Structure formats: C-alpha cells, structure tokens
Amino acid sequence: MCKIIRWISLAAMTVTINSIAAQTNIWEGTACKKKVEMTAYIAKGGSDMAVIICPGGSYFWHDMKNEGFQVAEWLRKNGISAFVLKYRTAGTPAFVLRYRYLFRGKRYPDAQNDLKQALKIVREKAAEYGINPQRIGAMGFSAGGHLVMSSAELLPQTEKPSFVAAIYPVVTMTEECVHKRSRRALLGDNKKNNLALRRRLSLELNIPDDCPPVFLVNCMDDPIVNFRNSLLLDSALSNIKIPHTYLQYKTGGHGFGASDVKGTAESRQWKDEFLKWIKTLN
Question: Which pTM does this prediction carry?
C-alpha cells in the first residue's frame, strides 16, 4: 500500500511539474538541424509579460540551475512567465582541447541566432501562452548578460526583446577588463584576436538609438567579471540617453543568480528591484 501511495504521489508531482515546465526544441521543423532546448515556466493564468532567460557560463557551458531554472521559478511565482534557453555554447571539449583552431565548433553567431529564434517562437505562441507579444524581454547572467544585450544591439527593431536585464554581464571584448574566457569561447580560438569582430561584439561600442530599456546589476567585488564591464555599459547607455537602471552593489561577488543563499543580502536585493522596475515599463 505504501508503495502504491508513493507511486501516486510521484505521478501527481510529475504532472504538476510538467504543467509548469514544458521543454521544446526551438529549431524543430526548420532548416537548422540543431537541437536547442527551451523550457517554459508559464505563470498560473498567464501573464502580460514574459522573460527569456539566458544562464551564464563563459559561453563555454551553462549554469542551468542557479541562473536558469531557479530564476524561472522565481519569476513564475511572481506572476511572470519565463523561458529558460539552453543556447549553444562552445562546450567543455573545446575549452580543454582548443580544437576550434582547426574546426569551427560552436561560436558566434550561434548563441545569438538561438536567442533570436527563441524570441520569434515565444511571440508566435504568445496567445497560447497567455502573454503580450509586445512585452517579451530577455534576462541574462554573466556571458548570458552579454548575449541578451547583444540581441538588443544587433537585431532589427522588430525582433529585439522589449527590455533587457543584464546581471553581472560580460560587456567588452576590447578593453583590458575583458573576460578573456568568454571572448575566446564566443569568437573561437582562431578568431579571438580578430579586431573587427572584437569591436562588433563589444557592447559598449554598439549601443543603437532604438535600444530597449535596460536593467543592469553588478557587484564591486566580482572576482570573475571585472566590475568595470558594467561601468562601460552604463556609461554607453547614458551617453545616448537610453532608459536604464544601474544597480551597483559593494558585495555579492558573481554567480548568485536568483539564489536565496548565494551572494550577499545586499546583492540579493536585485530581485525585488527588478520586480519594481518592470512595473515602470510601458
């Protein structure tokens, strides 16, 4: 009897989880023969707004739990539908073996194309998800922050996210404060020194006039991505008067995502501040 009860409980739990998180391949049915997973966390009753989440990981890998699924669950609990995108990254073998000196592997613009496709799919299915297709933003952490901000810069106006949240993002590919591992992963081993490509993918150098509103967060004591990255982005956004909010915390480090225990009490304030910020958007 106990086994039967446990089985029924597990089945009920599985149904509940599946009703919250549904996974799809964003490239299924297209000419792109790649498998890129996106997991949907639909808020109960739908939501006017949605966020596509891009976890960090230096463009080599992903922090799917702390900067992906936990973030989506937090947003869903606050009435915002979320979509966790496992965009293409270079991968651990490329990091260790450096085979992209000889073979293309995964590199720019693969991740950017994945986010573009994810935005397209969520907009096309907006009615099904119960969301407003004009209010679909993108949130990224670390290298994922670079990814979402690059979509705001490089995509045509009609394809850009409605807003961007860049949390302790990688920003520059040219300045001394560059996160070299992310640059190597994004450009590829045999193109990491390409000056034109470095400039094209340096966020602070390419802010467009039609850039959507930006929510920017980082910590002064970040040991992974130099805090000056966010200073560069804040300054560039200010120079052309792009609406944005920049929160700079003294402590918190890097990689705290939506965790209730990682980082510091100071840095974890970003979640409440984000929820306040999105209410100010039209």
Answer: 0.92
